[in-house]
Specification:
70% of the residues lie in helices and 0% in strands. It is mostly helical.
Length: 220
């Protein structure tokens, strides 16, 4: 009897997970067609073929729906960043390797990148998503902050927390600027010339890291 109940419970869990994945696919499709504003519990339920009750049973609100649609892509981004810098122990080179991996991820996955970083949306509670806030193995910002903390520990930059966050955000913002502009103003745009990509990435990373090194040098 207990075994039968266990089997039933396992089947229900599999069915719930399949519904969750289907709903997330629907959310992504709606966002691609009309942005986050096109997403509502009612529209998602209709497109997925479920009642709103089913959707609410799996996701607490619209913000959670959209946030969980980004979970897998965020984890993939962190995986790419971590893999890229695993080959080096030099803290500055690790920063550059991670920066290039971030940019390449954006170019290789423009739809996913746009959903995560270029779509105005409601913000879900931290505990509503799979990605663990502050976990360097899951949270892209936390991982980048970790790398700048390594620089501070090596005596290369200031160690105070506000400076570390500023360095992380300046670095991230520079990467995002290149990726987002290239996505929106692609090679077919006649208004903006496109430098050769590898050289462009190298120049951006060199300028940004040199600027950070100078601006946030530790006190002598």
């Amino acid at each position: 009897m207990d075994k039968k109940l266990t089997n039933i419970q396992e089947r229900k869990l599999r069915e719930a997970q399949a519904r969750r994945e289907h709903i997330i696919d629907v959310v992504k499709d709606l966002i691609k067609k009309g942005g986050a504003r096109a997403v509502s519990i009612r529209k998602v339920a209709e497109a997925a073929g479920f009642s709103t009750t089913v959707v609410y049973a799996l996701f607490r609100d619209k913000a959670t729906l959209i946030a969980q649609a980004m979970d897998k892509d965020l984890l993939e981004l962190v995986r790419a960043m971590r893999t890229a810098c695993a080959s080096s122990d030099d803290p500055w080179q690790r920063i550059a390797l991670v920066g290039r991996a971030y940019i390449e991820y954006g170019f290789q996955h423009p739809d996913e990148y746009s959903l995560i970083f270029m779509e105005l949306r409601p913000h879900a509670e931290i505990d509503a998503v799979e990605v663990e806030h502050g976990n360097i193995e899951q949270d892209p910002y936390a991982y980048a902050l970790h790398l700048f903390t390594e620089l501070a520990q090596a005596g290369q930059v200031r160690q105070d927390e506000p400076a570390l966050h500023t360095m992380t955000q300046v670095f991230w913002q520079s990467l995002h600027g290149l990726v987002s502009l290239r996505i929106v103003m692609d090679a077919g745009d006649p208004w903006t010339p496109h430098p050769e990509m590898n050289a462009h990435i190298d120049d951006l990373l060199a300028v940004v890291t040199a600027g950070i090194r100078l601006r946030f040098a530790p006190a002598s």
